[in-house]
Write a structure and sequence with these properties.
nine-stranded mixed sheet; alpha+beta; 9 strands; 4 helices
């Protein structure tokens, strides 16, 4: 009888963990760009070991028409593009996190082209609302890539694999 009880005590937590994991609402969510929960400024992001993401992605895989792996241009559905163009972005930037299944992979900042502040990070420049195509670009540095130092996180294999699984990745 002791042995049967011991087996139950050991196996039950494993089964419970598998069941609970299967009920997760964000599993298989794939690619998403999230704002930070508390609107964390870019100047504080590097110093933090953990940042909470917003409840919903600003851009989800379903908002993406295509992601060019060579140029890091993201062609968006019109509604998603409008969300980006209407963001209130201070001259010091607005932090975002690129996530897979709500797990942060790397961070960056939306940046307004009127800013006089430089930035050493991944950027998405706020586009004018008048572009013919709804395209944003994950760039490096502001005001130019010469302000970026370090390794380029945009080619993260997990990110590219997720976009490929969703049929969004183009390589031309």
């Amino acid at each position: 009888m002791k042995r049967k009880g011991l087996i139950t005590v050991l196996i039950f937590p494993v089964l419970l963990a598998q069941f609970a994991g299967g009920c997760s609402t964000h599993e298989d969510e794939g690619f998403g760009i999230y704002l930070t929960r508390d609107d964390m400024p870019p100047s504080r992001m590097e110093a933090l070991s953990h940042v909470e993401i917003a409840d919903e992605p600003l851009i989800s895989a379903s908002d993406i028409i295509s992601y060019n792996a060579q140029t890091h241009e993201i062609k968006l559905e019109n509604t998603a593009y409008e969300r980006i163009t209407s963001l209130q972005i201070p001259v010091s930037g607005k932090s975002f996190l690129v996530c897979i299944d709500k797990g942060p992979i790397y961070w960056g900042a939306f940046w307004t082209p009127i800013s006089s502040m430089s930035f050493n990070g991944v950027t998405i420049w706020q586009p004018p609302g008048t572009q013919e195509e709804s395209i944003i670009t994950l760039g490096l540095g502001y005001p130019s890539s010469s302000f970026y130092e370090g390794e380029d996180p945009r080619n993260n294999p997990e990110v590219l694999a997720s976009l490929e699984r969703d049929g969004k990745l183009v390589d031309s």
